[in-house]
Design a protein that fits this description.
The complex is a heterotrimer.
Chain A (H helix, E strand, L loop, with lengths): L6 H24 L17 E6 L3 E5 L4 E10 L5 E11 L8 E3 L10 E3 L4 E3 L4 E9 L7 E9 L11 E15 L8 E8 L3 E2 L4 E9 L8 E7 L9 E5 L11 E8 L5 E4 L5 E4 L11 E12 L4 E12 L2 H39 L1
Parallel strand pairs in A: 2-10, 12-20
Antiparallel strand pairs in A: 1-3, 3-8, 4-5, 4-7, 4-9, 6-8, 9-10, 11-13, 13-16, 14-15, 14-19, 17-18, 19-20
Chain B lengths: L1 H31 L11 E6 L7 E2 L1 E6 L8 E5 L5 E2 L7 E2 L10 E2 L8 E3 L2 E5 L9 E5 L5 E2 L5 E11 L5 E11 L4 E8 L3 E6 L2 E2 L10 E2 L4 E7 L5 E7 L3 E4 L4 E4 L6 E3 L6 E11 L4 E4 L10 E3 L6 E7 L4 E10 L12 E9 L2
Parallel strand pairs in B: 7-10
Antiparallel strand pairs in B: 1-3, 2-11, 3-10, 4-9, 4-12, 5-11, 6-10, 8-9, 12-13, 15-18, 17-27, 18-27, 19-26, 19-28, 20-21, 22-25, 23-27, 24-26
Chain C lengths: L1 H9 L64 E3 L8 E4 L10 E7 L7 E3 L5 E2 L8 E2 L9 E3 L7 E10 L3 E2 L6 E4 L5 E7 L7 E5 L8 E2 L4 E7 L5 E7 L3 E4 L4 E4 L3 E2 L6 E10 L2 E2 L3 E2 L9 E2 L7 E6 L3 E13 L7 E14 L2
Antiparallel strand pairs in C: 1-2, 2-7, 3-4, 3-6, 3-8, 4-5, 8-9, 8-10, 11-14, 13-24, 14-24, 15-23, 15-25, 16-17, 18-22, 19-24, 20-24, 21-23
The chains are: A alpha+beta, B mainly beta, C mainly beta.
């Protein structure tokens, strides 16, 4: 609200004096400074709801060879949408974290990556395919990371009528170049259990995979739980990177694996709290002793599958069960001893009594 | 004479007894011979092999509808030539209706096979009623192995017998052995990411220096994904604050990348994630600068995209985003303060 | 003794007290050997005229001087490749329209003979009730003789009876053979006719009904008189991924409406003859309607009689939503078998 001062007002202030000034000051303080548009009811016509697949988009190109990929874009909202595709860049931290989307496009990808449509018109509930064309130059590098964003507007202009949130969806685009000198090299390190010793499962393992090559890697492998490193019959085989995560060149990534098939074992209930579960069907999975967790990660170096192996040792000692067993055993033994003594002494007394009677 | 008569008499007696013995023996033999001439045909004969693939062990079902009134004691199944049969003890049976023909009822008295001779397997049975379709299954796949070559018209028979045993009814059946009886189906389900932003028009109402204002109807972000790789949500502010062109003034965002709580009477503008619900197995983490939850608490945005929430694993989450603003007594009055916040979501790799 | 023999011989010639006929015969008669009410029952020399009156005729099996004509050989076939029945069509020849016929059948060239009863079964005994009219025997379409042994060659012949007592001998025989129970069953896909058979959902985008890249065709030629069925079952009752630890469950549904699912749909059935092959619910849907696959046997299609080159073709459809975990190793194994009622 604007506060204006004129002749009539001046005369009114002179007459009413300070009280008027005070009242006006308070009124000014209470009056809103910025009036933003009110939205009286939920306006779903501006809601943004988009589904994309695949996400991420991973593709392998050959130098000088054109290729296309298709993104499926679905408008889940109840109104039509017009989306504008755009190529963005992103950076990533050394440990696969701290991902930042950039407005800029990496390494002049915009010159050889294009979309078949400048805009996607999607009626409510409809699905359309967005074709991404990769006109791969002959002198490309080894790998590229980008993000394809789909937004309602092409620019970032401020909407003038109040405060608005604008939705946008991004699809990470991971490009590998299949060229003779491309190097795929993964190193596995720091396989560790979160504890050296467990009373009950699950045992939680983390494993670090570092990409020392120059192309994007997608490690796969298994974590074998066995009694010794060279055991040929693992007790359990757990998948590593079941989700198919990628490790970008020059970065490393931590993968988690849980071994939870034990008796008893901690489980998380519906309330989110952990409690010890006694599932008697798993009675034969009572874990005790020394175990070796052996991780075997496999990647293809362009010629063959290369296994990378690391291992760690951990213990499972169910102290509670052992103590309970010992107590029960002690009581049993004492009971047997007690009864034995009773019988022995009683028999001896009876015999001596009988002898005396004779 | 008397001697001769005696001899004759003795001879006659001997002949008589011999003939009688022969006749008696013949009668006994005749009785003991399994009857053939009067065997009928089963009204229906059915043998279904659960696997038709060559060299595959299989369970199966036998059904028959008797047509001759008699008292059944056994049923014999003669399997086709080339089919390998296990020992009698492997032919365990049950009478669970496994897609039996219409009208099929449990075979009375059926039990584990008592004998396997050649291709013939003998099962115990009790009396059957003419015109009723009876069925049983052999339940152990080790009992029967399909022949090792693919061929049509692999024939066998089903025979009901009485206690003699004499054949009551018998009928043939036919089956097929084939290279494969299966189709392998495979599918690939790609990672999908759904990002929804609702209530995109935010109303902070009238801003006064006496209080901190917050979104009356805050925006919500809902994310669903089928990928265990998680996702990220970023946001940026087109003008790093609430800007009024007419007043040529911007209520600036608080220091981007830091978390703070606005104070009434002190200009400031931030956004906080005030609630998160997650129905997936993954974990949602609100970036520290954007932790909300109390009035005016949040982080400042600028023109670069900043991470506000992220998730690991499959996390289908809904987050509430509240914008907060506070003005001072010197904040220029205007009705056109505006801002556009871009919120971007992406499935992780 | 000689005297006794001589006297016995003399007693055989026509004699009276005073006269003996030295030679005798009946001569050649003239006119009818019958009257309105009577006729000669036995052979009476060469008879002239009819050996029938209005009321009486000579029964079949007896040489007559005038009987209904012997029927020609019937048409005797096994057109349906049957194993326990054969088809016979009587050839009435020039027999009057009120002629009745009886059928004899034998598997040993009439060393032993059986007779077809009016209920189309066979029996060892012959009775007047075995006769029925040409129309009763199915006329030009004929009838099926039931209860025959499989893999056996039979001969059949026909006798005629007209009026009350004029009947013919059995005519010339025709030959036909029963088959043995038989089945030929095969599988192919639209991609290959040789195993292994694979059908793939290359990609299952969320909220999109997708058809697998190969349809499956099962063909069958079989002669079970009581028909048969083609059965199907699934190993996982859905598409299962061990990596994702998830099964996209198969269920009967319209995938155009359901959020997700997987199932089979028969797109066509056919046969050269017999059957027919009929798709069974719930696999007989159209559009995006599918039948759910289970780990138990279910009927995919059925036929009520012997069938020649019967076929059914089915495809697999699936739909995932955004909650189905991503994985590249979803799989299932679909098994087919046959159920034949011989």
């Amino acid at each position: 609200m604007r506060v204006t001062i004129n002749h009539v007002t001046h005369e009114w202030l002179r007459r009413k004096g300070a009280w008027a000034l005070a009242i006006a000051a308070i009124a000014v303080l209470l009056v809103p400074v910025a009036g933003l548009h009110k939205v009286s009811a939920a306006d779903t016509s501006q809601d943004f709801s988009i589904q994309v697949s695949p996400s991420p988009l991973a593709i392998t190109l050959k130098p000088g060879v054109d290729k296309t990929a298709t993104l499926s874009v679905r408008n889940v909202s109840n109104h039509s949408e017009t989306l504008y595709p755009r190529l963005n860049g992103f950076t990533i931290g050394k440990h696969g974290d701290n991902i930042k989307l950039l407005e800029t496009v990496p390494a002049n990808m915009s010159s050889w990556v294009s979309f078949n449509e400048n805009s996607l018109n999607l009626p409510a509930g409809s699905t359309k395919q967005l074709t991404v064309s990769f006109n791969t130059p002959a002198d490309v590098g080894f790998s590229y990371n980008a993000a394809i964003t789909l937004s309602r507007t092409q620019g970032s202009a401020i909407e003038p009528d109040g405060l608005h949130l604008r939705g946008s969806v991004a699809i990470f685009c991971l490009v590998n170049i299949d060229r003779p000198d491309a190097k795929s090299l993964l190193d596995v390190s720091n396989l560790a259990a979160d504890r050296g010793q467990y009373q009950f499962l699950p045992a939680h393992f983390t494993l670090n995979v570092e990409n020392k090559g120059n192309i994007i890697g997608q490690p796969t492998g298994s974590l074998f739980i066995q009694r010794s490193y060279d055991s040929t019959k693992p007790i359990a085989t757990l998948p590593i990177n079941a989700g198919g995560n990628y490790v970008l060149p020059g970065t490393d990534r931590s993968f988690s694996v849980d071994w939870n098939s034990g008796f008893p074992a901690y489980v998380r209930g519906d309330d989110g709290q952990q409690h010890l579960s006694w599932d008697w069907k798993h009675l034969n999975e009572l874990r005790f002793g020394r175990y070796v967790a052996k991780a075997v990660v496999v990647y293809n170096d362009g010629k063959r599958d290369v296994p990378v192996i690391t291992s760690t040792v951990f213990w499972v000692i169910p102290w509670t069960l052992i103590i309970a067993f010992l107590i029960v055993a002690f009581l049993l033994v004492m009971g047997i001893v007690g009864w034995g003594r009773l019988l022995f002494n009683g028999t001896r007394k009876v015999r001596s009594y009988a002898a005396r009677r004779k | 004479m008397q001697l001769l008569s005696s001899i004759k008499l003795s001879t006659k007696k001997a002949s008589f007894y011999s003939v009688s013995a022969v006749m008696a023996f013949a009668a006994v033999v005749a009785v003991l011979q399994p009857g053939q001439a009067n065997a009928g045909a089963l009204s229906t004969a059915f043998v279904r092999f659960d696997r038709l693939q060559i060299s595959q062990q299989t369970t199966g079902t036998v059904c028959a509808k008797p047509s001759t009134a008699s008292t059944e004691a056994t049923v014999q199944v003669t399997f086709p030539t080339g089919y390998t049969l296990g020992l009698a003890a492997t032919f365990t049976v049950n009478t669970t209706n496994t897609a039996w023909p219409t009208g099929g009822t449990a075979w009375p008295g059926i039990a584990t096979a008592s004998n396997v001779t050649g291709q013939v397997v003998t099962f115990a049975s009790t009396d059957l009623v003419v015109g009723t379709l009876y069925c049983f299954n052999w339940a152990n796949p080790a009992a029967v192995t399909v022949k090792s070559s693919a061929s049509a018209n692999n024939s066998g028979t089903i025979t009901t017998r009485d206690s003699v045993p004499a054949t009551i009814d018998t009928s043939p059946f036919s089956t097929q052995s084939m290279t494969t009886d299966q189709i392998s189906v495979s599918a690939s389900i790609a990672q999908a990411f759904t990002f929804a932003l609702t209530n995109p028009s935010d109303n902070l109402g009238g801003l006064t220096s006496g209080s901190v204002s917050t979104s009356a109807t805050p925006a919500t972000v809902a994310v669903t994904t089928n990928a265990s790789t998680g996702w990220m949500i970023w946001a940026k502010d087109a003008s790093t604050g609430l800007n009024s062109p007419s007043a040529t003034n911007t209520i600036a965002s608080t220091t981007p990348g830091t978390n703070s709580t606005l104070v009434a009477g002190t200009e400031g503008y931030n956004m906080g994630v005030t609630s998160v619900t997650n129905s997936g197995s993954g974990t949602v983490t609100v970036a520290t600068p954007f932790v909300g939850g109390s009035l005016g608490k949040g982080g400042g945005l600028d023109t670069s995209l900043r991470l506000i929430t992220s998730a690991t694993g499959i996390a289908n989450a809904t987050m509430t985003l509240k914008n907060n603003a506070a003005v001072g007594t010197n904040t220029a009055a205007a009705t056109d303060y505006a801002d556009t916040i871009t919120v971007v979501g992406a499935g992780m790799f | 003794m000689f005297r006794a023999v001589l006297l016995s011989l003399l007693a055989a010639v026509p004699t009276s007290t005073n006269y003996v006929l030295q030679t005798y015969d009946f001569g050649t008669g003239s006119g009818s050997g019958s009257s309105s009410n009577y006729n000669l029952r036995g052979t009476a020399g060469t008879a002239g005229g009819n050996l029938a009156s209005t009321t009486y005729t000579l029964p079949a099996g007896i040489e007559n001087s005038r009987t209904v004509g012997v029927p020609p050989a019937p048409t005797f076939t096994n057109a349906d490749n049957s194993y326990d029945r054969l088809k016979i069509v009587i050839n009435p020849g020039t027999a009057p329209s009120d002629t009745k016929f009886a059928i004899a059948i034998s598997s040993d060239n009439f060393v032993t003979t059986k007779y077809v009863k009016t209920d189309q079964t066979i029996a060892s005994t012959f009775a007047i009730s075995n006769y029925q009219s040409y129309a009763g025997w199915g006329g030009a379409s004929g009838i099926t003789i039931l209860g025959l042994a499989n893999g056996t060659t039979y001969k059949a012949k026909v006798a005629a009876l007209q009026g009350v007592n004029t009947g013919s001998a059995f005519g010339p025989a025709a030959t036909a053979s029963t088959s043995v129970p038989s089945v030929s069953f095969g599988l192919v896909t639209s991609l290959t006719s040789t195993p292994p058979f694979i059908s793939t959902f290359t990609s299952l985008p969320p909220n999109t009904v997708t058809t697998a890249n190969a349809t499956v065709t099962a063909t069958i030629t079989a002669n079970p008189e009581n028909g048969g069925k083609v059965l199907v079952k699934s190993q996982n009752a859905g598409l299962n991924s061990s990596t994702a630890g998830y099964t996209l469950t198969s269920a009967t549904a319209d995938l155009g409406v359901a959020a997700k699912g997987y199932g089979a749909q028969i797109s066509s059935t056919a046969q050269t003859s017999g059957g027919p092959m009929v798709a069974v619910s719930p696999f007989n849907g159209s559009g995006n309607a599918v039948g759910g696959l289970t780990t138990a046997w279910q009927e995919l299609a059925s036929f009520n009689s012997p069938i020649n080159t019967g076929s059914l073709t089915f495809g697999l459809l699936a739909k995932a939503d955004a909650n189905v975990p991503a994985a590249t190793n979803y799989s299932d194994v679909v098994t087919l078998t046959i159920s034949l009622l011989f």
